[in-house]
Amino acid sequence: MDGYSAKIKNSGEHLIRNEFPEKALELDTLVSSPMLSFSQVSKVRTEIQLPTADDIIAHLKHGKNIRSTDDHHSSTPEINTDNGCLIKKHKADSNDNPDSIQASVYEFNGNVPSNRLISTLEDKLRPYILHFLDSVAIIKLWIQLMIPKVEDGNNFGVSIQEDSLAEVRTIETEVTQYIDLTCKYLISRGELIKKVVKYPHVEDYRRSVQSLDEKQFVSLRFIALELRNHYTSVHDLLMKNLEKIKTPRTNQTHSLY
To answer: Domain named Proteasome activator PA28 N-terminal: which ranges (predicted)?
Structure first.
């Protein structure tokens, strides 16, 4: 157990002295790069690759690219739109006019891709989030292992350890919430896409998808900024109080910086 404790202590101090400032500088470079610039917002609002109501009407009126799975009955004609989507037309009633658009039900078959820019940013930030959480777990144990046994006397250094540990835990809780953000975004976007498919004539559903993508971009930029600040603040806090964290009980008294 002594060897394991020594390993944790060495790892914790290495993270604080070396890896945290390196990660902070990397994130600062990322935040300052064109990838997270607000000029990218216009690129985030990409057009959704789904047929509009006008596309469906135009294809039906002109009979463009319509083919049937049965040349005799033509009960399930298929429409290939220009963006590669496939729409199947089902007659609501055999007595209906086959040229009547209102008497038809349409089934969308195709692939709706994720927003590529958002996906790229998420893939870029995820390793930093996971590294921070993994590192904080080691740092918490590192501080905990250096807390001396409870006894009477000078415990001021111990209070510095406990305050530092509490601050690290608070930051850890905040960073953990960043993981949920991506999941909630994907679920919300998927639900909106379903609405666009079901109601292609409602323009607000299309615009809401674009607005959600824009919101996610701003949130990812915020996450990058906060991660940079967290790496910096944890490094700064623990380095300024490193001696009291490592040797909490001395004859001298110091205040928490």
So the answer is: 2-52
- Provide block-wise average pLDDT over 10 residues at a time, the chain (257 residues): 84 93 96 88 73 63 46 43 49 49 52 86 95 95 83 66 91 92 91 87 88 93 95 94 80 50
Please name the helix (run of DSSP H) or strand (run of DSSP E) that holds residue 104, with its range, or none.
Answer: strand 104-109
**For residues 18 and 24, is the Cβ–Cβ distance under 8 A?**
no
Is residue 119 domain-shared with residue 174, that is, in the same domain? yes
Helix (H, G, I), strand (E, B) or coil at 89: strand
Q: Determine if the pTM surpasses 0.85.
A: no
Task: Report the number of secondary-structure helices (H) and strands (E) in the chain.
Answer: 8, 4
d(CA 3, CA 49) in angstroms, rounded, equals: 58
Q: Are strands 104-109 and 78-80 parallel, antiparallel or unpaired?
A: unpaired
